[in-house]
Amino acid sequence: MSAKEMVREVIDKLPDNASLDDIIHALYIQAKFEHGNQEIEKGKGIPHEDVRKRLYKKWVK
Hints:
Layout: H1 3-13, H2 20-41, H3 48-59
């Protein structure tokens, strides 16, 4: 999907009364998800169990 198609899809999912700030925020979030998915496809993700261990160490002190 091209970037232009992604933008149209995101905007089409928003309510008709969405503000410009709402649109920009939704596009920003979508871009972050796309970047994250690309990182995972490249093998740069962190396994779920490793994340759990890291968060547990931070939360339980």
